[in-house]
Amino acid sequence: MKELIAREFLFFFIAVLVAIPMSMLFLYLMDLQPAGNELSPEEEVLEMEFLIIGAVLGFLGVYLARLTVLAVKTIVPSED
Fold first, then answer.
1. What is the pLDDT of residues 22-80, one digit of tens each?
2. Which of 9, 26, 10 is nearest to 61 (CA)?
3. Where do the structural domains in the chain lie, given as residue ranges?
């Protein structure tokens, strides 16, 4: 049981670490451009919201992929 909890804890931190660059990629792909030379306060808030949305989507994507691999390993019999 301790091994299972430790593994899930490790996968949680890996998913968080991978979600950060994925959120930056999400923000880059949105290609937001400021209206003037600088970002207005509203645009800064919007950029942070998109960054948070990208991080959440990245985290969910990584964790969903991990759960999918676990499900396939469970269903497909091993040849040991």
1. 888 888 888 877 777 888 888 889 888 988 998 999 899 888 998 898 889 889 987 76
2. 26
3. 2-31+40-73
